[in-house]
């Protein structure tokens, strides 16, 4: 990240170039540091992904991302996907981690019979062959809401929604987890449990 610009000092809610950060920019910054690269600003989360809010604000400011605790709490409260969890003076990303030091002990839950996964057509050949794999993240993300799966898929183009036979997976011994924000998680989904390929 670029060094802190002089004009950004003591200016609330600004980026390294001194420009105001909007809620989306703050949310993207939080996703980056809390899910993937806490080390990029010197944060050290515990194994459950928690960091002290005061540490996050201090280290973010030292790297040119200046915003108040009130603004942080507003971004967290108004995030449509509830990507972050605040607990007392601590914060973490609810799910989506790739940082190796974070291994959240998500609660094991009985899933509904059917879950959904939003993707795009260009990934379908690999999904048909290998199923859904976590890739660089710790888990595959699934939804019990078809419309939410559409929104997830649309981030990368025209959405394709696959149906996951969660009941059959559970019968076969697979485990499902539930993140703080309600997102369903699995270690992977073999192709035999995927339906509705176009």
From TrEMBL:
The keyword Transferase applies. One of its GO terms (biological process) is tRNA splicing, via endonucleolytic cleavage and ligation. Pfam families: PTS_2-RNA. It comes from the Bacteria. GO terms for molecular function: NAD+ poly-ADP-ribosyltransferase activity; tRNA 2'-phosphotransferase activity. Keywords: NAD, Transferase. Its EC number is 2.7.1.-. It is an enzyme of class 2 (transferase). Removes the 2'-phosphate from RNA via an intermediate in which the phosphate is ADP-ribosylated by NAD followed by a presumed transesterification to release the RNA and generate ADP-ribose 1''-2''-cyclic phosphate (APPR>P). May function as an ADP-ribosylase. Belongs to the KptA/TPT1 family. This is Probable RNA 2'-phosphotransferase. It comes from Conchiformibius kuhniae.
């Amino acid at each position: 990240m670029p060094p802190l610009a002089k004009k950004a000092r003591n200016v609330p809610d600004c980026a390294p170039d001194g420009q105001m950060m909007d809620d989306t920019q703050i949310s993207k910054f939080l996703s980056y540091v809390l899910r993937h690269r806490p080390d990029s600003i010197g944060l050290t989360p515990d194994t459950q992904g928690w960091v002290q809010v005061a540490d996050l604000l201090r280290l973010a400011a030292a790297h040119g991302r200046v915003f108040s605790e009130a603004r942080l709490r507003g971004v967290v409260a108004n995030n449509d996907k509830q990507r972050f969890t605040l607990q007392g003076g601590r914060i973490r990303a609810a799910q989506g981690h790739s940082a190796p030091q974070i291994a959240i002990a998500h609660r094991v839950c009985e899933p509904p019979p059917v879950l959904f996964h939003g993707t795009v057509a260009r990934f379908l050949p690999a999904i048909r062959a290998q199923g859904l794999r976590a890739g660089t993240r710790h888990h595959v993300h699934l939804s019990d809401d078809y419309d939410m799966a559409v929104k997830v898929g649309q981030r990368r183009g025209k959405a394709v929604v696959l149906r996951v036979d969660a009941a059959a997976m559970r019968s076969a011994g697979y485990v499902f987890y539930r993140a703080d924000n309600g997102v369903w998680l699995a270690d992977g989904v073999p192709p035999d449990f995927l339906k509705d390929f176009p």
